[in-house]
Write a structure and sequence with these properties.
This protein is mostly beta strands and 157 residues long. It has no helices and 10 strands. The chain is 0% helix and 49% strand. The strands form 2 sheets. Strands 2, 4, 5, 6, 8, 9 and 10 form a 7-stranded mixed β-sheet that branches.
Length: 157
């Protein structure tokens, strides 16, 4: 039976971590985190024979740096057009300050010799992305009666 120690020379890529907005957050509003990791097949030698190992992301463990953690099945996705909306991988910071957010991807692995059938390896492994700094600030909003461009003398403009 092939184990994780047998495939130690096969190295999966660490995930990449991004956030929206980039590098900063507003206290009380969702900050979106996105981790990029994908299925990866690596060729090499296993037990002295040519082989391939396939790593597949199966989960993402989040540490938001303020004591809160989370786990998701996917790495999330960009907000698109709805900034500051809650997502499966977003986090709401409740205090101002400087934090360091991180994520680790949990990977399953399979191997095969000579293009044969894929065979699973029991268990998973976690690979961490580089941490990203998060500067959490407070924001004050004001109500305006219309567009400040069209009516610059309106309240709040």
């Amino acid at each position: 039976m092939i184990t994780w120690s047998d495939i130690a020379s096969f190295r999966a890529s660490a995930p990449q971590l991004a956030m929206e907005p980039d590098g900063w957050a507003v206290r009380g509003l969702p900050t979106n985190f996105v981790a990029t990791a994908s299925v990866e097949v690596i060729a090499g030698s296993l037990l002295g024979f040519p082989a391939e190992v396939r790593f597949t992301p199966v989960g993402f463990a989040w540490d938001y740096g303020d004591g809160a953690t989370g786990f998701s099945a996917s790495g999330g996705s960009s907000w698109g057009g709805a900034a500051f909306s809650e997502t499966a991988t977003s986090h709401i910071y409740t205090t101002r300050g400087d934090f360091s957010a991180s994520v680790a991807v949990e990977l399953s692995a399979e191997y095969r010799f000579g293009g044969g059938d894929w065979r699973p390896i029991s268990g998973t492994i976690r690979l961490a992305a580089s941490a990203t700094p998060v500067a959490v600030k407070s924001a004050t909003t004001v109500l305006v009666a219309g567009s400040c461009v069209a009516r610059p003398s309106d309240p709040g403009c």
